[in-house]
Amino acid sequence: MDTQFLVSLTIILATFALYIGIAIYNKAKATSDFYVAGRGVPPIFNGMAIGADWMSAASFIGMAGTIMLLGYDGLAYIMGWTGGYLLLTFLLAPQLRKYGRYTVPEFIGDRFDSHTARVIAAVITIIISFTYSIGQLSGSGVVIGRLFEIDAKLGTMIGVVLIAFYAAFGGMKGITWTQVAQYIILIIAYLIPVIFMSLQITGNPMPWLSYGELVGKMGELDRELGISEYFAPFTNGTKWQFLALMFTLMAGTAGLPHVIVRFYTVSTMKAARWSGAWALLFIGLLYLSAPAYAAFSRFILMTKVAGSKISELPEWTKTWVDTGKLQVADGNGDGILQWSELVISNDIVVMATPEIANLGVFVIGLVAAGAMAAALSTAGGLMIAISSSFAHDIYYRVLKPNATEKKRLSVARWSIVIATLFAGLIALNPPGAITQIVAWAFALATGTFFPALVLGVWWKRSNAKGVIAGLLVGLGVTLTYIFAAKYGGFTILGIIDTGAGVFGAAAAFLTNIIVSLSTEAPSQKIQEEVIDLRYPEQMVYKNGEVWMNDGTKQL
Amino acid sequence: MKKIDKEVADSYFRERTRNIIIYFIVWFLVSFGVVFFAEPLSQYSINGFPLHYFMGAQGAVITFIILLFVNAKLSDNVDKKYGIDESKNEQISSGKVFEH
Q1: Min CA distance, A22 vs chain B (Å)?
Q2: CATH of the domain at A294
Q3: Distance from CA of B98 to the nearest CA of A (A)
Q4: Which residue does chain A place closest to B39, by CA atoms?
């Protein structure tokens, strides 16, 4: 046991104690606390909670590395995962908030007045959130495992028990406030290393302003080496794949149930709009910094590591070479490490930066705590989404509409515990590449919920048959394209499996519209409810007339 | 409750929708538009970055954030113009909501 171990352990345990304390303090007493945090979360805090909910272990640990390895093509993730908030905030969030339900399947079930649609939506929510959560749990296992030099499996179990405890106890109310704390921890942990790195390499403490020079300089180095420039577009796929991936990530963002449900926790449509704005500002702090991490790391690897003698590599490379995250092989046997002889894992960029910049034990421990915060906060939000789909939409709305409040809370709590343990078991032996599966979750959300919600909110003529057909066709087309592209070598315009959402969404929109138009219109009451979503809470649409609710009695 | 002219409510909706369409045009140009013309744009540079890289790594994201705040602020102004009182909204919303 060295100092590093003790410092990291102390920091991580302190953050765990904080999360548990917050959950106990904010114990959910009623179902409205449990599902929507009592609907009183102030927009700025909801923005932080959305940020923590949104930024996963993959964003925190892996994204900077992905951008470093993919160059310009990796920026599809930056634009896709931020641009989606415009679709969400302009087209869906305020309207869904005005409709005033607990979950996404509940909106679909009530808007289309169909239990079939409700159950399909609940099952799709569970599928999407479950695949996504496996990535989070195995991510937290990797962090705990690497840090404490224990098996990643044991690390995963520690993460699972912690999430199951505080999510089941505090529900959405507890999760909201733990996510606020987790956001603050993860953003500080993310920014400190990159600021110091910028200071050391460029002398400027603002990495966002300083790394442009390096990007240009690396282009020159690349030309000398005879490889494609760092910033050269479309070196890892076609332009159409870039555009399709970006669209899929944007529309998927707007269709992910665990993100949408965070907008249900505020009080009004206005608060939903401000939540979206604050959320993207907080998320932007991390997403604007990731390409800076990528540039600094690549610059150091190109200038300080490549080109030096194999026997004289910098001190910090040793631990990463030992774990296999950095591979150095002197292919041509000249005793000097060439750039082409380096194999770099994308996990290394953020985790190794504190060591590269020589920031000391405290910052290394803080970064580990930040990575844990990112994994736990996202997993917590996902677990609530899974539990509410089951306990609220399937159990209460369909199977047992007479269940008591107490019974419903206990079903909700137990479904969180069971879902977390089950996801944890799968995360012990994660199937294939996790990043791949997470990308598929986005494609599925794009092909299913995005069209269903947009048409549900904006087109009163969309009916139950249309949405059911749309959801099923969107799901079918997306899955078929994923498998055809991944295993059958079938592609259109070079669009691979991660961009499959484009086809799913197009098919789902078309199906929904065609089937809706060729079957009978929804009831007058439903159509009026949809028109009512155009207006703020105070304006009420009824029988073709608009009323202003000024607090006086209804006529 | 007092009845208001349907025209007034419609013009509220039109005004909000028009703004949103404008935001989406900007959103589309800075992301999809720039990617589509990435090759020709790469010959310009800004703050040391080739322009297309700058837009992908920073320009688009900053534009998105600004658009969201502009939307939040302008929507508040539109609400005010039509005499919408946020404290009433809160009251209505917490009373009316389907709490089950």
Answers
A1: 25
A2: 1.20.1730.10
A3: 6
A4: A233
pTM for the whole structure: 0.92
Backbone φ, ψ for residue A483 (5° rounding): -75, -35
H or E, element range at A190 = helix A152-202
Give me the residue from B36, B39, B90 closest to A267, CB to CB. Answer: B90
Instruction: Return d(Cα A220, Cα A225) in angstroms, integer.
Output: 9
B52 touches chain A (CB under 8 A): yes
Residue in chain B closest to A78 (alpha carbons) equals B57
Share of chain A above pLDDT 70, in %: 97
**Per the domain annotation, does A427 fall within a domain?**
yes
Cβ-defined contact of A219 to B58 (cutoff 8 Å): no
Q: What is the mean pLDDT of residues A275-292?
A: 95
Contacts of B71 in chain A (CB under 8 A): 89-90, 273, 277
Per-residue model confidence (pLDDT) at position A1: 54
- A521 domain residue, yes or no: no
* A35-74 residues touching B, CB cutoff 8 A: 39, 72
Domain membership of residue B60 (yes or no) is: yes
Under 8 Å between Cβ of A202 and A292: no
Q: Is the pLDDT of residue A457 over 90?
A: yes
Total domains, chain B: 1
In DSSP terms, which residues pair with B49 in a beta bridge?
B46
* Arithmetic mean of pLDDT, A166-182: 87
Q: How far apart are CA A243 and CA A204, in angstroms?
A: 34
pLDDT above 70 for A445: yes
Please give the average per-residue pLDDT across A383-396, as a whole number. 87
Q: Residue A555 has what pLDDT? A: 45
B50-75 mean pLDDT? 95
CB < 8 Å to A29, chain B: none
Work out the number of other CB atoms within 10 angstroms of the CB of residue A509.
Answer: 19
Alpha carbon of B5: minimum distance to chain A alpha carbons (Å): 7
Return the SS3 of B49.
strand
Residue A539: DSSP 8-state:
E
Scan for tokens 């300089």, then name that residue: A217
Among B residues 19-48, those touching chain A with beta carbons less than 8 Å apart? 20, 23-24, 27, 31-32, 35-36, 38-39, 42, 45-48
Host domain of residue A379: 3-433
Dihedral sign of CA atoms A486, A490, A496, A499 in order: negative
- Scored b (16 or more CB within 10 A) or e, A124-145 reads bbbbbbbbbbbbbbbbbbbbbb
